[in-house]
Amino acid sequence: MYIHQVAAYLPADVIDNAHFTRLNGLSNEWITERTGIRARRKASPGENTNTMAIEATRRVLAQTSDFAAPDVDLIVAGTYTPHDTIYTVAHAVQREIDVSDIPVVSISSACSSLLNAIEIVEGYFAMGKARRALVIVSEHNTAYNNEDDTVAGHLWGDGAAALLISKERLAPTDLRVRDIRTGGAGNIGKADESVTLKPVERGIVMPYGKDVFIHACTYMTRVTQEILARNAVSVEELTYLIPHQANLRITKNVLQQLGLPEERAVSNIEDLGNTGCAGAAIALASTWPELRPGNQVVVTVFGGGYSYGAMLLER
């Protein structure tokens, strides 16, 4: 299958680290050193997970004449910060593009939902139940975040991305999905309590960041090595690594383990913070114009609940 186009939407409001210095005394230097984050985007009062997903969808459809809204026969959306748990983000996007009687699925596997969503598309394609899919990832982290939390309140940003995926190549610029692998490690370490979001309680909480760091570095490195080996691609042949945008120290650790120079990694966390399952797709959208024929790209993710995955793309 092929990724035909990808587009991102980011709210206009920029929240820099000075906001948290004023709020709870965390310095810009302290935040930057530990996370790599200098700023993040915040949805306006009129925006939410659904509206950001709709805007990303409008943008991705506007980028092509080969894939129109009526062509969509499958919608899969990912988020762990839903605006509505019943009328989901996938339903909202379906209403926006006005296509009836197609499979519409919303999923949540924390920050790894992007790859789980694409793998669901792979399954529908393999069964002959769809040919052209729309995947949306959207996070409204600031709706759930507690900014007074000095452990994790400064990590989160808002944003969305949309991808058009087809069973056949539609254009020379399409990215072929050579392979995709996902897994769950919910039985490992402190997966059940390291990152939680209980809406009726305190929102997003991350009491065991060290445990997240250790397992994110381990699993993102391991699954990247596995997918490269499975497809006979060497690390040296990898053009870009697009990791989940959680923490710049995690990215640097994974690069070190893989033996990749820093310039091979695509990172947006400095300007956007942790945008959850949308982060890697937003990074892919920014990298898209730079990709050339023969380029190999790995997207690797790790999320709360300790879900993980990697996807190998080729132009």
UniProtKB/TrEMBL annotation:
GO terms for biological process: fatty acid biosynthetic process; secondary metabolite biosynthetic process. Residues 107-168 form the Beta-ketoacyl-[acyl-carrier-protein] synthase III N-terminal domain. Pfam families: ACP_syn_III, ACP_syn_III_C. GO terms for molecular function: 3-oxoacyl-[acyl-carrier-protein] synthase activity. Residues 228-314 form the Beta-ketoacyl-[acyl-carrier-protein] synthase III C-terminal domain. Keywords: Acyltransferase, Transferase. The keyword Acyltransferase applies. This is 3-oxoacyl-[acyl-carrier-protein] synthase-3. It comes from Hymenobacter actinosclerus.
